[in-house]
Amino acid sequence: MPNAVQPSRQLLVLLMALTALGEVSTQLIIPSLSAIEWVLAAKPGSSLLALSVFVAAFGAGQLVLGPLSDRLGRRPILLAGLLVYLLATGWMLLASSMPEFVGARVLQGLGACSALVMARAIVRDVWQEKAGPALAATVIGMLCAIVISPALGGLLYRLGGWHAPILLAFGFATLTLLVVVGRYRESNPHLNPQAGRMRSLAADYFDLLKAPSFRALALTLAFTYGAMFAVIAGSSAVYIGLLHLSPSQYGMTLSAIVLALIAGALFTRSYITRLGPNKVVSIGVTLVAVGGLATLATYHLFGLSVLGLSIPQVLVTLGGGMVLPASVAGAVIPNAHRAGLAAGFMGFAQMAGATLSGILLSVLQDGSAWPMVFLNGSFAFIAWVIFQGLNRRQLAVGAALP
């Protein structure tokens, strides 16, 4: 049966918006975290839990929703997820305590994860073997959200308080839901009635992870995003609390750093067909490692400064902009018959890296920038070691085969 949904610019824009939803949900509120703690009478630093639980729910939900969409279809999972997202965001606006706010963030993360994993699976459904450049384009949507949202969140906080950024996220999700209802038809014509069943789900993932190349891409994605998340989660306290930038100055600084993410994704979109996903990931993870270690060395030798922290991070984000789309493309494209399963695990791996990074950042907090800088450099280096090590092992095994 031919695919009922054809590639189009309009569909790609919708998928870019869906991919961006998770980052919009987090990046918009980062400049307001200190104010949220004060208003909700919570202790300083407690808002980091709201970031971490969102990421944990965002990742864990994909393990179930991805394969479930292979059985039920992308559209029903997407619609249900967006509705949960809107209910949770409304709850955040009404929260009267930090535990209540954190609980709402868990539900918001579950709702938002459906948007990311469905977008990636839909790209594989529609663009098929040529999905690499389209996946890179959807990541550009996510990266644009990372670039724009912190500065916009800081401006909205200054104009309307901490509710204003959350209201914008609510409006963005509402508009996206209306477009999905009106413009998106089911793109998975080959539903698998056995997919997503709990009794076989672990075996399905084990079968997926038997491929060394899939393991290499998943772990590299996890530690690369963990390196970036250490800065995403910790930068508010460092730039505002230690370097004394205003929320709007902080938002603009973070936006300038992550502009390199878009450059990396644009490189991936242009060259992934020619170079292949593995080569693009190799280039990207090397840049991430160099940037993370340079940040660590600069801090150790010269102390904390805006330029000393920000400039090396441009290399991290440039490489991250390559690793994110290329690793997903390398994992999803060979798994056409279980695109939801593969996309779900890659999303889980990405968020697992961020969750581990966020938990360690919270545990290691000592009032300085050291925990953030240390985790950024460590995760970046581990990502590089894992990718190079697993790929060398795979090449050695391949050469030994007759």
Protein described:
This protein is an all-alpha fold and about 400 residues long. It has a single domain, classed as MFS general substrate transporter like domains (Growth Hormone, Chain: A, Up-down Bundle). The protein is built from 14 helices and no strands. The two termini are about 40 Å apart. One of its GO terms (biological process) is xenobiotic detoxification by transmembrane export across the plasma membrane.
Order of helices and strands: HHHHHHHHHHHHHH
Average pLDDT reading: 87
CATH architecture label:
Up-down Bundle
Helix content: over 70%
Estimated structural class: mainly alpha
CATH homologous superfamily annotation: MFS general substrate transporter like domains
Q: Which regions contain 5 or more consecutive residues with pLDDT less than 50?
A: 397-402
Could you give the count of β-strands?
Answer: 0
Helix count, DSSP H or I runs of 4 or more residues: 14
Q: Which CATH class applies here?
A: Mainly Alpha
Distance between the termini: 39 Å
Subcellular location: Membrane
Keywords: Membrane, Transmembrane, Transmembrane helix, Transport
GO molecular function, one term: transmembrane transporter activity
Domain Major facilitator superfamily (MFS) profile: 11-395
How is the topology of this model organized?
Layout: H1 9-27, H2 33-39, H3 47-72, H4 74-94, H5 98-127, H6 131-160, H7 163-183, H8 198-209, H9 212-242, H10 247-275, H11 277-302, H12 306-332, H13 339-364, H14 370-400
GO molecular function, one term: transmembrane transporter activity
Membrane topology: Multi-pass membrane protein
Subcellular location: Membrane
